[in-house]
Design brief:
The chain is an alpha+beta fold. Helix content is about 40%, strand content about 25%. The chain has a four-stranded antiparallel beta sheet. The longest helix is centred in the middle third of the chain and has 21 residues, at about 35-55. The model has no long low-confidence stretch (mean pLDDT about 90).
Length: about 130
């Protein structure tokens, strides 16, 4: 378990809300409300940290709240989560290529019917495993 905690600046602009991180130049999220924007920010930050981790970069130290300069309509919240748990969602949703064999006549019929082979295999595997 690797807990991470970073201050997030919440930019509340009435009809929508967006979140930025002072410790990361390119990590942002937005939504129609601040709760969703913060939730989305965890995914955005996980993607950035995953990229850094894979390239061997050290995660930056979190800024101190008292050092942050806020404008009107901005507030700070700490985003705290288990990086390894969040990262699993990235890994589990990553697509992998599988090679399989089916009879030629079945392949031809499926192509003619416009069947998406990947979606069909996923649906069949989920049904076989009892996964929704």
């Amino acid at each position: 378990m690797r807990m991470v905690s970073y201050p997030a600046i919440i930019h509340n602009e009435g009809k929508h809300c967006w979140v930025s991180f002072p410790d990361f130049d390119s990590v942002y999220s937005q939504a129609n409300n601040c709760n969703d924007a913060i939730s989305n920010s965890i995914e955005a930050l996980t993607l950035e940290l995953d990229s850094m981790d894979r390239s061997g970069e050290k995660f930056p130290d979190a800024s101190k709240v008292e050092s942050l300069d806020l404008n009107d309509g901005e507030s700070v919240a700490f985003v705290v989560f288990d990086f390894d748990e969040q990262r699993k969602g990235i890994k589990y949703n990553k697509s992998i290529k599988k090679t399989l064999t089916i009879p030629e006549w079945l392949n031809d019929a499926a192509i003619q019917a416009g069947i998406n082979f990947s979606a069909t295999l996923q649906d069949a595997l989920k049904a076989k495993l009892g996964i929704r």
